[in-house]
Amino acid sequence: MKEKSKIGFGTAAIGRPLYINLKQNKEEEPFSLPAFKANGLEVLEDAYNKGIRFFDTSPGYGIAEELLVDWVHQKNDPSIVVSTKWGYTYVANFNPDATQHEVKEHSLNKLNEQWIFSKKLAPNLKIYQIHSATLDTGVLENEAVLRRLHELKIENGLIIGLTTTGSNQVEVLKKALKIEIDGEKLFQSYQCTFNVLDQSVAILKEALQELEGPFIIKEALANGRLIPNDNYSNYTNLYSFMKVLAEKHQVGIDAVALRYCMDYFLGATVLSGANNSEHMASNLKADTFMLSTSEVEQLSAFGISAEAYWQERKELAWN
Predict the structure, then answer these.
(1) I need a labelling partner for 260 at 20 to 30 A (CA). Which of 2, 84, 287, 295 fits?
(2) pTM of this structure
């Protein structure tokens, strides 16, 4: 029997004050790093107390990795599973007016540099991923990087994975799935964007459900676009249907969006990107019901092309 899908916690929103998303809260308060750290630790603790044991982070998420290192050592709970990444460096320094928020570099030097800190997540660190692997950086053809990842796998008992982003997710996955080092597949975990709107990776559903490690779903809420918004009149019918499902199951629309992913990819880890306890509680209601096969199929009918999805995403601001 296939393992039940579960909800994990993606830490981007608690590690840096701005993220690509639709702005929901109109209130503006001066940024305070101590308060921001305190809130991040509070949300981690809340997620743990609500039953979450899978935590996803990255050096590119501001202070998220640092928060998680201190927190997992304090919890001292072997049931906590952590995945982290390498390849992005956060450079905005918590400045909301920064013109650049992150720098991408898929070099061997960057891998070794970021591993020095990321390995502090051990023994809870189980999955190590290339952050946003794309064809243009050449990382999937970089023999030195691939062999170093294989070394880290052997030396530390890790599952090696990668995350994808952009309209060519499927192309990247197809290339990565073929990569072998010393006769074995290197990548055994993938973290991809999948939601009601962008279902492109569904074409590889069978391969993604047969991995040794987890298939991790990010952006299940489409960066906020699945929450009813007057700016997206083209999704009016989708919003109406999701509202019907939310009322039927007595949950929020966010829970419907998460549940769709859980019921489509059985056994996947679906990330909540909540940055406060209220949103976390609302997201976790996805665990209280199931969508019927017919409801999943009806939601799937609202999917759009990957090109249209990512073009729309490019227009979102850092909030």
Answers:
(1) 84
(2) 0.94
Residue with tokens 């189980």: 126
Report whether 86 contacts 9 (CB < 8 A).
Answer: no
Q: Which residue in this structure is represented by tokens 């202070």? A: 63
Phi, psi at residue 218, to the nearest 5°? -115, 165
Highest mean pLDDT among 33-42, 86-95, 135-144: 135-144
Lowest mean pLDDT among 39-48, 65-74, 89-98, 150-159: 89-98
Measured from the Cβ of residue 42, the count of other Cβ atoms closer than 10 Å reads: 13
Q: What's the whole-number mean pLDDT along residues 198-208?
A: 97
- Is the bond preceding residue 123 a cis peptide, omega within 30 degrees? yes
What are the residue ranges spanned by the domains of the chain? 6-314
Answer whether CATH 3.20.20.100 is correct for domain 6-314. Answer: yes
Is the pLDDT reported for residue 25 higher than 60? no
